[in-house]
Design goal:
about 160 residues, mainly alpha, two-stranded antiparallel ribbon
Length: about 160
């Protein structure tokens, strides 16, 4: 730790004690010093009774936004995206009590819905193909119906190809 940082840390610790004496008993005190974009001076000094979650709540109430960019939010969202992806793969579930389980289950449920929709589309496409074959063999049907059905089959084929089915 640099000499400058040590001197500030010592002064801040002394100040915390002085400030805490003037706070109501149920207040928490936290001193934070940082240089934006650099880690060289990051200093977080909580008083013994302070809770970092309470400090974050106070910052949020006073203007901290989820819209700002910071490493913590990026990391958090990476975990959410990972849980969604792993759930879609039905692999590596988090412990049942972990907060990411909710996102893992969403990924798994969306994948199940995807598979159900692909199966329904395959069935519908096959039935449409069978109808087309019957119409072709029977003759005498409206060609517009045949053309529309063939166009619908092309759409179904494109979606099935995109889904890897």
């Amino acid at each position: 730790m640099s000499e400058e940082k040590n001197a500030f840390r010592d002064a801040a610790i002394e100040a915390i004690s002085d400030m805490a004496q003037h706070l109501p008993l149920d207040c928490e005190l936290l001193v934070v010093a940082c240089r934006p974009g650099k880690k060289d001076f990051d200093l977080v000094l909580p008083s013994p009774e302070s809770n970092l979650n309470n400090a974050l709540d106070a910052l949020r109430r006073n203007g901290l936004s989820i819209d700002g960019d910071n490493a913590y939010k990026r990391d958090l969202l990476d975990v959410v995206v990972g849980a969604l992806a792993l759930g879609a793969q039905n692999s590596n579930p988090p412990p049942s009590s972990h907060w990411a389980t909710r996102f893992w289950e969403i990924g798994r449920e969306e994948r199940e819905l995807h598979e159900d929709l692909v199966a329904a589309l395959k069935l519908t496409r096959e039935n449409l193909r069978a109808c087309q074959a019957t119409i072709h063999l029977a003759g005498g049907f409206d060609p517009a119906y045949v053309n529309d059905a063939q166009a619908a089959m092309k759409v179904a084929d494109a979606v099935l190809a995109k889904a890897g089915a």
